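Retry 2 of 3 after timeout on previous attempt. Resubmitting structure tokens to design endpoint.
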């Protein structure tokens, strides 16, 4: 078995081994994974954080030892807390990283990827936060453009948005909306929900295709065109700009 880590700011995870293949997710700096299959130009990988699988360009990651993979998997998770910031290597070369990037083996502003040491001087996130911080974190993504497979304030999809908000507060969600819907406790009514709970929405075939974070007073923040705030009722999401319902409510889940 081979192992790897993302050493660039944001790289695409693709459905198939091709640059023209659909982007199903992204890896942020510092995310580590198992290499399930390595070809000449592409590797099929499984992320440690959420078990999600896809293909990476071999030029866009570095290999690490099994020992480093195991140590990272057991060590404290420290994330970058700035919307965008820089790390510098020992030669003072700068690399950009965005919020939610992992800082491997972080200690006294130093991080390590394989044999390379970097310095990061920005704010860090390393603790579980109270539920009230979920919405505060979600507002950092407000107006971020929708991007299928995206996980950053520069482009995010609905489940990438909810996953990253929960991750930044110290909690783990699966990658896709239909996977996230299997987590947590079912609530029968909107009135039972609290700010920070998740609402899921399905299509005409009953497949869950959308998720958002419930706010107080029957509002919801979700990624649809952009990360936006709309009304939530028993039918679903009422888009305040279009003046119509855009998503049909399926289930409400309390994760924490």
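Retry 2 succeeded. Sequence:
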């Amino acid at each position: 078995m081979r192992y790897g880590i993302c050493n660039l700011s944001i790289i695409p995870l693709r459905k198939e081994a091709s640059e023209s293949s659909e982007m199903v997710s992204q890896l942020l700096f510092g995310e580590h994974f198992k290499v399930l299959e390595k070809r000449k130009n592409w590797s099929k990988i499984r992320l440690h954080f959420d078990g999600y699988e896809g293909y990476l360009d071999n030029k866009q990651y570095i290999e690490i030892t099994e020992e480093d993979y195991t140590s990272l998997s057991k060590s404290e998770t420290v994330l970058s807390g700035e919307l965008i910031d820089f790390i510098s290597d020992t030669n003072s070369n700068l690399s950009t990283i965005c919020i939610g990037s992992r800082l491997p083996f972080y200690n006294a502003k130093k991080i390590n990827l394989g044999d390379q040491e970097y310095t990061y001087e920005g704010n860090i996130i390393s603790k579980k936060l109270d539920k009230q911080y979920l919405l505060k974190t979600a507002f950092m993504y407000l107006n971020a453009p929708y991007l299928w497979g995206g996980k950053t304030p520069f482009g995010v999809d609905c489940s990438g948005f909810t996953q990253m908000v929960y991750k930044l507060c110290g909690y783990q969600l699966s990658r896709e909306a239909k996977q996230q819907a299997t987590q947590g406790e079912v609530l029968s009514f909107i009135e039972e929900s609290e700010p920070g709970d998740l609402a899921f929405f399905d299509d005409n075939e009953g497949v869950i295709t959308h998720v958002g974070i419930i706010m107080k007073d029957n509002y919801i923040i979700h990624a649809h065109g952009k990360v936006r705030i709309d009304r939530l009722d028993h039918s679903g999401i009422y888009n305040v700009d279009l003046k119509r319902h855009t998503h049909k409510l399926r289930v409400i889940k309390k994760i924490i």
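Attempt log closed. The chain has a mean pLDDT of 96.
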